[in-house]
DNA sequence: CTGAAAGCGCTTACAG
DNA sequence: CTGAAAGCGCTTACAG
């Protein structure tokens, strides 16, 4: 027994109930004509079109999106799937914004979904959000967050087009058979370190946790620059840091106790740079007068520092846009070869590097 | 050149093409029976169900979500509409997370959309995102960001259920005929200021831009506490600040030049507190030894400070959850009276308040 | 240019 | 319990 929809008073007030048939009757035409007007088909006479548009306006008719989508065989909705992040960090939030902005400019929509999974569970045991279990609701997926091989395999198993934000892909090796967009970790620190060298620095350290593959790539970029100039690399990674502040304290200690003491430090990311900055200040060490500092990511922390942090800027919105663009290309050309686009980073000179 | 997934073999591999009719044929039953199994109707015999499930598995069948939704007359998708924010600030990002988390626990989905509009344009001129122009795609809206009266009227005009995050509603007065969820600005600063008084402070200033209604409410809470204890309120608002750092500099100046000098400052939000902290430090004024500081919002900045900021915590995820919950109630009970839920805040004691 | 009809992939009374 | 049929709100050949 289906319950009748609400009280009779609301019948006129709720335009949702008006269907294409009502409009056809009101305009005295067939339903096909209404559809043609809605889809701005050229084969409708001016007068008919005007009559139909007037009827649509008068009845407050809005076509049912679901019904259209069934026939169109495309929902024009993509899913932004954030995996294994307990909170939507500004970095990913801005990727999402880039996705949304590009998507909406093309009349597409973005569904936001979250997934938590263990990297150690077999692929088929990963419990995907319901939206990925159905089909027809979304056309494809933009995969962000931390991506382990099992998630990749799980997503592949549902045969839905997807694009992965590649920088936080962990533990996959060799060739990958999917579309990816990322930014250039290696060249980011390469450029930053070269800048320090140009500014006259010769004793340059690197502080960052290289157990993350992206920090490792940044470390590699740093080492390349160091080697190029025949300098010696100095790596600083505190043991068992107990949280953010403790991490800063321990690495500051290691830096300051080194003989000779580095004049500059390249950090694995802005957060590390921030923690270091706090600790150095606390110990009365001035940035950049006594130690120059360079970050990576250009997060909010960067401009909150005083002086503001010189860092490697990542164009987060552009990453989102490019993900969306690639996904659309994939949808239109399913047989196209897979590609991995790596977007350039940009070194931003602000206040934390001293010219020696 | 990487090769895409097999071309010819994909006919069987792509489950999207399998329909309920294929399954019916494979299982040797009618399509109605497949539907009943999918909807776990109890009126299917164990053997038939088993046969159908096996066929579904074998064919990799996943039902078409759009088709189901047409019949169900409910999409179980809500739209999170972020208005007039040029970027998804962590504050709103966490509201979104709360919405998503509650929604997904109930098998609902969240569509993320952005809107930019002028507060001065007539309501009917506001160009809503396409998803709000169709019907059937979403069941309702959660409205976040800065909300002016014209947007409210525009949303009301499309007759779609919605819930507004109320703290950033601007310029509406009197009774509001819609559902709202917000947090308690007034009691937040009331509690924070009382805490300062308990700690022995008698000269307490308030720094914040009261042209924003929410900061005005926070100012009111501060004044209530001040009046309760028969103290004198001291309001600090720098003229024409030129950005974040300049704002901090100017207000620090005003605070320090006052005779007698306040021993504590309640700020309109964490950002203000952070700017103030930076400037005070720069001028060699110690927090909290010489000046105590209290923030509002409990944003990321708060824990980035050293010592970490004592502030008024807002439960952002809970706001999102409550929005989603109210929207669902509204959907199930369209005739229910409108309500405005105001969630409590919580004062978090950290390191920036000195006991006198 | 336009209407009548078939059809998209489902759900759900209806009748056995 | 189950199948055949009607129907959800659209789009799109088809035939004039």
Q: On the 0-100 scale, what is the average pLDDT of chain A? A: 90
Structural class designation of chain A: alpha/beta
Largest sheet of chain A: 6 strands, parallel
Largest interface, with counts of residues having CB < 8 Å to the other chain, equals:
A-B, 64 and 63 residues
Helix percentage range of chain A: 40-55%
Q: What is the H/E order of chain A?
A: HHHHHEHEHEHEEHEHEHEHEHEHEE
Kindly report how far apart the N and C termini of chain A lie: 82 Å
Instruction: Catalogue the unreliable spans of chain A.
Output: 1-16
The fraction of residues in strands of chain A falls at 15-25%
Q: Largest beta sheet of chain A: what is the strand line-up? A: 2-1-3-4-5-11
User: What is the number of helical segments of chain A per DSSP (H or I, 4+ residues)?
Assistant: 14
Rg of chain A (C-alpha, Å): 27 Å
CATH superfamily of the largest domain in chain A: Response regulator
In the CATH hierarchy, what is the class of the largest domain in chain A?
Alpha Beta
Care to count the β-strands of chain A? Answer: 12
